[in-house]
Design goal:
GO molecular function: beta-glucosidase activity
Pfam families: Glyco_hydro_1
Catalytic activity: Hydrolysis of terminal, non-reducing beta-D-glucosyl residues with release of beta-D-glucose
Active site: 163 (proton donor), 351 (nucleophile)
Order of helices and strands: EEHHHEHHEHHEHHEEHHHEEEHEHEEEHE
Distance between the termini: 10 Å
CATH topology: TIM Barrel
Strand order of the largest sheet: 2-3-4-5-6-8-11-12
Structural class: alpha/beta
Radius of gyration: 21 Å
Keywords: Carbohydrate metabolism, Cellulose degradation, Glycosidase, Hydrolase, Polysaccharide degradation
CATH architecture: Alpha-Beta Barrel
CATH class: Alpha Beta
CATH superfamily: Glycosidases
Strand content: 15-25%
Number of helices: 15
Number of domains: 1
Bound molecules: D-gluconic acid
Largest sheet: 8 strands, parallel, barrel
C-alpha cells in the first residue's frame, strides 16, 4: 500500500456551466457560453448547458453521493452571471444557491473549494469588450469581493481563475471556446487582463481573510523535444514558453518570458497593453498553485506551423476518448519542475482524469481504463510526495459526466455516470475504487 499523508485532500471537481443547468432560474443572466452554444457549428450536435446535469436542482442528491464516496473536498465554480446578470445589478438570489451548496457541503464535512472564474463571463460584460477590455478587471474584483463578503466565512480555499490559457487562447486565438474570436493580439491582451484580475483579487482577498487561502489553477503540460536535435530542443522550449512559462513566470517571478514577448511582437504586433506595476500586482504571493494535468506535449521543429514552428509528435501508446496520450510519469516531472523552477508553496492537482467511452451494462459501468489511468497518476503523485514534494490534495476531473465544452455531452469524464434522459446518476467502478482509495488514504499495490 502506498500511503498518502494524513489530511491529504482527496476531492473531485466540476464547473458551473458544465453541470448546473437551471440557465434561467432565480434571475441568472446570459453568459458567453450560453451565447456561444447558440451560434451554429461551435458545439458538437448543437448541445448546450441549459439543463446539463441539472445540478442546480439536484445538488442535494449530488452532495449525498460525494459523501458516500468519502470525498474530503469538492471543487466547484461559481457562475458570475447568477450574481451579476445585468450591468449594475446584484442578484442576491443567484448567490443564495451557492450558500445552500456550501452549507450542505459543510454539513457532510466536505470542504468547499470555489473557483471564481471557470469561463462563463456574463454576456453583458462581453458586450462591452469582455476580457479584452481592461475595465473587466474592475468588474471581476467587484464580483470576487461580493463572494468574499457573502461566502468568505464558509469557503477557505479560493481559486481566482481556472486555466487562463484556455480562456485566452482557445476563446480568442483559436476561436474554439466562447466567445469564439480569432485574433491573437486580442488573445494576448485577454491573457494579460486575466492575470491582472487574478493579482487584483488576491490583493482584495487579503482584506477579507487572514486565514483563508487563495491561488490560481493553470493547465500545464510538461513539454519534451521529440529528438535531441538542437532545433527540436528549441521548438520544445518555445512550446513550453507558450503553454507553461507564459503564465507561470508572471505569477511567480513577476516577468513575462522575454523569448515569448519577442516572438509575439514579431508575429502579432506591438504589445501595448502591459502597464507599469501590472506585473507587480500579478505576482502577489499566493497560498497554493492548482495544477490541471492531462497529457504531456512532445514536439519537434516544423516550418508548416506559422505560429510557433512546432509540430506535435504523435504518440503510439494508449489514448483516452479525447485522443489524449496517457503518461503518469509526466505528472511527476511537472510537479518536480514547479518545485525546482518556481516555488515550494503547496500544490494541488485541481484536475486530472480521463474520458472513455463508458458502457452501461446492467446498470454498471466497468471503467477499468479510468481506474488504471487514475491509479497510475496517483502513484506519480505519491512518488513526488515521497521525495518531499509539497502536494496537498488531488481533485479528480470530474465528479460527474458533464458538458465537455465544444464536445458537448459526447465525452464522459465523470467517475459518476449521468443518464442525460432521466438525469439518473450511476456510480462507475472508478467511483467505487476511488472511495476505497480515500478510505485507505492509499493506492493499493495489488492494482
Ligand atoms: C478544464 C476544464 C474542464 C474540462 C477538462 C477536460 O479546466 O479544461 O476545467 O472544464 O472539462 O479539462 O477537458
Amino acid at each position: 500500500m502506498l500511503k498518502f499523508p494524513k489530511n491529504f485532500l482527496w476531492g473531485a471537481a466540476t464547473a458551473s456551466y458544465q453541470i448546473e443547468g437551471g440557465f434561467n432560474e432565480d434571475g441568472r443572466g446570459e453568459s458567453i457560453w450560453d451565447r456561444f452554444c447558440q451560434m451554429p457549428g461551435h458545439v458538437f450536435a448543437g448541445h448546450d448547458g441549459k439543463v446539463a446535469c441539472d445540478h442546480f436542482h439536484r445538488y442535494e442528491e449530488d452532495i449525498k453521493i460525494m459523501s458516500e464516496l468519502g470525498l474530503k473536498s469538492y471543487r466547484f465554480s461559481i457562475a458570475w452571471s447568477r450574481l451579476f446578470p445585468k450591468e449594475g445589478h446584484y442578484n442576491e438570489k443567484g448567490l443564495a444557491f451557492y450558500r445552500r451548496l456550501v452549507t450542505l457541503l459543510h454539513s457532510y464535512d466536505i470542504e468547499p473549494v470555489a473557483t471564481i472564474y471557470h469561463w462563463d463571463l456574463p454576456q453583458w460584460i462581453q458586450d462591452r469588450g469582455g476580457w479584452a477590455n481592461r475595465e473587466t478587471v474592475d468588474h471581476f474584483v467587484e464580483y470576487a469581493e461580493t463572494l468574499f463578503r457573502e461566502l468568505g466565512q464558509d469557503v477557505n480555499k479560493w481559486i481566482t481563475h481556472n486555466e487562463p490559457w484556455c480562456a485566452a487562447f482557445l476563446g480568442h486565438g483559436l476561436g474554439i471556446h466562447a466567445p469564439g474570436h480569432r485574433d491573437w493580439h486580442e488573445a494576448l491582451r485577454v491573457g494579460h487582463h486575466l492575470l491582472l484580475s487574478h493579482g487584483r483579487v488576491v490583493q482584495a482577498y487579503r482584506n477579507y481573510s487572514q486565514e483563508g487561502q487563495i491561488g490560481i489553477t493553470l493547465n500545464l503540460a510538461p513539454t519534451y523535444p521529440g529528438t535531441d536535435k538542437p532545433e527540436d530542443v528549441a521548438a520544445a522550449h518555445r512550446s513550453d514558453g507558450f503553454i507553461n512559462r507564459i503564465f507561470l513566470d508572471p505569477v511567480f517571478k513577476g516577468i513575462y518570458p522575454q523569448d515569448m514577448i519577442d516572438l509575439f511582437t514579431k508575429r502579432f504586433g506591438t504589445i501595448d497593453f502591459i502597464q507599469d506595476h501590472d506585473l507587480q500586482v500579478i505576482s502577489q504571493p499566493i497560498d497554493f498553485l492548482g495544477i490541471n494535468y492531462y497529457q504531456p506535449n512532445v514536439v519537434i521543429h516544423s516550418e508548416d506551423d506559422q505560429l510557433f514552428n512546432v509540430e506535435q509528435v504523435p504518440d503510439e501508446g494508449k489514448k483516452t476518448a479525447m485522443d489524449w496520450s496517457i503518461h503518469p510519469e509526466a505528472l511527476y516531472d511537472l510537479l518536480k519542475r514547479i518545485q525546482k523552477d518556481y516555488s515550494n508553496i503547496p500544490l494541488y492537482v485541481t484536475e486530472n482524469g480521463a474520458a472513455f467511452d463508458d458502457q452501461v451494462v446492467n446498470g454498471e459501468i466497468h471503467d477499468e481504463d479510468r481506474i488504471e489511468f487514475l491509479d497510475g497518476h496517483f502513484r506519480a503523485a505519491h512518488q513526488f510526495i515521497q521525495e518531499g514534494g509539497n502536494l496537498q490534495g488531488y481533485f479528480v476531473w470530474s465528479f460527474l459526466d458533464n458538458f465537455e465544452w465544444a464536445f458537448g455531452y459526447s465525452k464522459r469524464f465523470g467517475i459518476v455516470y449521468v443518464d442525460y434522459e432521466s438525469q439518473e446518476r450511476l456510480l462507475k467502478d472508478s467511483a467505487k475504487w476511488y472511495k476505497e482509495v480515500i478510505h485507505q488514504n492509499a493506492v493499493l499495490s495489488n492494482h
